[in-house]
Design brief:
7-stranded mixed beta sheet; 54% strand; 4-stranded antiparallel beta sheet
Length: 114
Amino acid sequence: QVQLLESGGGLVQPGGSLRLSCAASGIIFSGNVMGWYRQAPGKQRELVASITRAGNTAYAGSVKGRFTISRDNANNTVYLQMNSLKPEDTAVYYCHTLIGIDYWGQGTQVTVSS
């Protein structure tokens, strides 16, 4: 059974940093594209960043240069380092992978506010 478990969210002031983690189980982690999505209240879920099994990355324009996605295949974990956070980054952040169907974690809340 595929499970994705996010952690690391919280409340942070504008300009601050957070690192999200997603621990995966039940999959051959190293063979999968992993992604981080977010959904703010009243908005559609959007792709924030993704990383291929080879380590190639892609970012939404709104986070490029501020967020970094990385993966540790030995520990089946994908990370999202978020720097220079802005209030508009406030959302529930979800870990995702696609193995025939979409798999999602339960989400972790990130709130950027003074």
